[in-house]
Amino acid sequence: MSFFKKFLGLDKAEPKDLEPKMLGEDDYKGFIISAIEMKSGTEFQLCGRIEKEISGEVRVKEFVRADRLSSIEEVLKFTHKKGRQIIDEQGEALFDRHC
Fold this sequence. Notes:
16% of the residues are buried. By secondary structure, this protein is of the alpha+beta class. The chain has a single domain, classed as 2-Layer Sandwich (Double Stranded RNA Binding Domain). The radius of gyration is 14 Å and the shape is globular. It starts with a helix and ends in a 9-residue tail after the last helix. It is 24% helix and 40% strand. Strands 1, 2, 3, 4 and 5 form a five-stranded antiparallel sheet that branches.
């Protein structure tokens, strides 16, 4: 089981509920940035994933930040902004890291 699923508490969920709820996608420089719903009490925590097809293989990197947001609109805005920042700083090299 992936660390991400354990972190979200999904390792105890029913099989049909194992997939996190995607709130929206943004295509940026050939990468797809997805905002993922991650509730923290009455707020949402900034959580997303970046993916790109490289040499026929879809590569994925997930990220979680401490930021707490009050609406889904904010989650979309800030997750996509953070994803773009990660892409601009690391490019495809972000998939080379194992942590």
